[in-house]
Amino acid sequence: MSATLPRFGVWALVHGSRAALQDPAEPYDASWARNKSLVLEAERLGFDSVLVAQHTVNPHDPSLDQLEAWTASAALAALTSRIEIIAAIKPYLYHPVVLAKMAQQIEHISGGRFAINLVNAWNKPELERAGIGFPEHDERYAYGREWIGVVEKLLRGESVKHRGDNFHIDDYRLLPADPYRARPRIYVGGESEPARSLVAAHGDTWFINGQPIDDVARLIADVSSRPRAAGQEPLRFGLSAFVIARETQEEAEAHLQHLFALAELDKPIREQQKANTDPNAVMHPTFARSARVGSNGGTAAGLVGDYDTVAQRIVAFHRAGIELFMLQFQPFEADMKRFAEEVAPRVRRILTSA
Fold first, then answer.
1. First vs last Cα of the chain: how many Å apart?
2. CATH topology of domain 7-353
3. pTM above 0.85, yes or no
4. How far apart (Å, rounded) are the C-alpha atoms in residues 104 and 98?
C-alpha cells in the first residue's frame, strides 16, 4: 500500500482519439497544435504527467497523421513549467549514444521533469518497411536490455566502455551531466517475462496495461518480489486506464455504449492493426479477455461510473500499489476537465481522511 497520494497523467493524442477515430464530438486531430493545447491545459488542471507515445507512422492507419514524440517532447519541455514529460522510445530507432544525448538535453530544457518510457515495439511494418527489421519477441527484449544499460550509464554522466552483442562503445561520456538528479526516470512497458525481468533490473516505474484490480495486484506482487541492484529505489507502478466519469452510473454506462458503437466504425482499421502486431506480444491476449474501449487496456480497468464510484476504484488500485494513473478520455479535453474537477478531489479526500 502506498502512503502517498496518487499521481495522475494523460496520454498525448499522438495518433488521434483513443477510443474511436470517427467521433463527431472529437474530430480526428493528432496535430502539434492540438497536443500542445491539450498538455498545457492538463498542466493547468493539475495533472502530473503526460505520456508521449512514439510511432513514426500511425499504427491504426498509415494514411492518418502521427505526431513525432521526441521533437514534440522537447517543445513541451520548453512550454511547460511543472508537468512531467514522458517520451516513449523504441530502441531499434535510435543508437543509445544519440538517444541518451537527446534525453539529457530535454532533461535540461525541462528543468528536471523528463522521463523515458522504454517499449520494445509491437507494430511490425513500422520497422520492417524502414529496412530495420523486426526480430522475434525475446530477441527484441535482449536488445532493449543491452540498449537501456548503455543509456542509463550515459544519463548518469558516466564514461562508458561497453562490449556487447549489439554495441561497442569506447570511453563515451555525455556532458553537461544532469544538474537536477542522478538521471531522468525510466518507465518500462510490457508484461511478458522478459519485460518483467528488464523492468526489475533497469526501471523506476513499471507501466501496467488496464485490467481488473486482482490481475494488477498479481502483476505487482510478481515484479515486486524480484531482486533489485544495490542502491536502486523500490520499483513504482503505473496503470493505463480509460475513464468515463459522470454524475450517475446510468450516464457513464450510456457514454460507454456510445463509444462502443463508434468504435465499431473503426473495425477494419483495428483488424489491420491486429495483423500488423507481433502475435507473441502478451498485451493482446490480455486485452481480448474483456470488451473495452481505449488503448492499452482502456476501460478494462473498470474506471467507468459515477464520480464517487470511479474515485473509490482509483483508491483501491492505489492501495494495491499503483502510484501513477496514466489516463485516457473521449471527448478528451472535456472529460479531462471533468476528472480534474470531480474525481481527483474525491480521491484526495478519501485518502487524506482515512
1. 13
2. TIM Barrel (3.20.20)
3. yes
4. 10
Helices vs. strands in the chain: H and E counts, helices first: 13, 12
Rounded distance between C-alpha atoms, residue 61 and residue 319, angstroms: 38
pLDDT at 280 over 70: no
pLDDT of res. 59? 86
Residue 25: burial class (beta carbons within 10 Å; 0-12, 13-18, 19+): exposed
- Estimate the share of the chain in helix, then strand, then coil, as percent rounded to the nearest 5: 45, 20, 40
Cα–Cα distance for residue pair 142/197, rounded to 1 Å: 10
- Reported as a single tens digit per residue, the pLDDT across 82-123 is 999 999 999 999 999 999 999 999 999 999 999 999 998 788
pLDDT tens string 53-77: 999 988 888 889 999 999 999 999 9
What is the CB neighbour count within 10 angstroms for residue 307? 19
> Pick the residue with more confidence: 84 or 288?
84
Q: For position 60, what pLDDT does the model report?
A: 83
> Quick check: 319 and 4 in contact, CB under 8 A?
no
Return d(Cα 157, Cα 257) in angstroms, integer.
51
Q: Are strands 160-163 and 168-172 parallel, antiparallel or unpaired?
A: antiparallel
State the amino acid at position 152 in one-letter form. Answer: E
Contact 146, 163 (CB under 8 A): no
Instruction: List the domain boundaries for the chain.
Output: 7-353
How far apart, in whole angstroms, are the C-alpha atoms of residue 300 and residue 134? Answer: 29
Give tens-digit pLDDT for 322-341: 999 999 999 999 999 999 99
CA distance 11 to 43: 13
The Cα 119–Cα 121 span in angstroms is 6
